[in-house]
Amino acid sequence: MKKNIYVAYTGGTIGMCPSAGGYVPTPGHLVGAVAAMPEFHRKEMPNFTIREYSPLLDSSEMEPADWQRIAEDIQTNYHRYDGFIVLHGTDTMAFTASALSFMLTNLDKPVIVTGSQIPLAELRSDGQTNLLNALYLAANYPVAEVCLFFNNTLYRGNRCSKVDADSFDAFASPNYPSLINVGIDVRVNAGKISKTSSNEPLNVQPISPQPIGLVRLYPGIMPELIENILRQPVKALILQSYGVGNGPGNQQMLELLKKADDDGIVIVNTTQCLKGHVNMAGYVSGNKLANTGAISGQDMTIEATLTKLHFLLSQDLTPQQVKEQMLRNLRGELSAF
Ligand SMILES: NC(=O)C[C@H](N)C(=O)O
After folding, report:
1. What range does the domain containing 287 cover?
2. Which residues make beta-bridge pairs with 242?
C-alpha cells in the first residue's frame, strides 16, 4: 500500500520566482514545477497532495498566527494521511519547527519541515532533493516528531538553527545528533528517534503572540537599555549572555533584573555560543545572574527558547509554573545535565 503524504506549502524560496525587487513567492509555480518533474511520480514515491497556502509567504513574514494555522491544518488532515511535510522558507524555518513541536501533542506521525536555498524550478536547486527526500522519509522512515530536513540530513526540529545564509548546508543542530543521514544508504541513528504510539488523539495547543524581550549582552551594554526593554507589557526576557551564562556584575543591571523577576517577568539566561549549555554555577559572574531569579536556558536553541516561551505564556500559568516548565524537557528540546 502506497503511503499518503500531505504537503502544506506555506511559501519560501522553494516556490519563488525572480522579480524586479528580488525573489517573490508565486502562486501555482511550485505545484506546476513538481508536476513536471518525473522523479516525484516514480512508483517508489508515496502519493502526495500539495495544499498551497494563500498568501504564500517569505518566511520572514511568519508570525505566531501562521504557526497556529499550520498546526490546525495538520490536525484537520491528520486522520487522512500517513505523514506531513511543511514547505517553508529557510529564514524562520527553525522557529516554525520549534513552535510546531510544542503545539502538537500526542504526535505519532512524522511532520517534516523543509524548503530550499534556490527555487525548485531553477538550475542547481536544492529544492528537488530536499522535497523528494522529505517525502521519501515521511513514507518510509516515519519519525514521530517534528523534524527539519535539509541537505541530506533529518534533524529534530526544535534543535535546529539556520547557520549559513549561502550554503545548501544551511542548518545545524549543535547540541543534538541528527536523526537520519541520507547518503548512498539511509542511515538511521537508532536510539535518537522517538517512535511513540500514543492512543491519545492529536491535540493542538493554541499559541498567541507574546511580549518577549531579547537582549544580547555586549561589552559596555547600558543598563538603561535593558530597563527600556523590561517595560510593560513584557512577560519574559531572554538574555543572551556570554559562554556558560556569564554577564557583567553591573549592580544597576542586576537590580533591574531582580526587580523584573519580582514583578513576574520570566528571565531566561541563554548563551551566545552556538554549542554548549548554560551553567550559572560555573563562575561568580554567572552566579550573580542566577541570584536575580533568572533561570537557565540550558542547551536550548534561541528558536526553541522563544517558541517555548510563546507556548507556555499562551497558557494560563503563573510565572513560577512557566519557569518550571522552561526547565523541563517537554519535546526533546533540551538535554538533561
Ligand atoms: N531560502 C529561503 O527560503 C529564504 C526566504 N527568504 C524565506 O525564508 O522565505
Report:
1. 212-327
2. 246
ipTM of the complex: 0.98
59 among annotated binding-site residues: yes
Q: For position 180, what pLDDT does the model report?
A: 96
Burial class (CB in 10 A: 0-12, 13-18, 19+), 275: exposed
Ligand 1 pocket mutation pick from 24, 58, 96 by most atoms within 8 angstroms of CB: 58
Cβ of 90 below 6 Å from ligand 1 = yes
Number of domains into which the chain is organized: 2
> Are 80 and 182 found together in one domain?
yes
In the DSSP assignment, the letter for residue 202 is P
Q: Is 336 within the bounds of a domain? A: no
CA distance 270 to 103: 22
pLDDT digits 0-9 by tens, 59-87: 999 999 999 999 999 999 999 999 999 99
pTM confidence score:
0.97
CATH number at residue 259: 3.40.50.40
| pLDDT over threshold 70, residue 191 | no
Q: How far apart are CA 74 and CA 145, in angstroms?
A: 13
Q: Is the CB of 122 under 6 A from ligand 1?
A: no
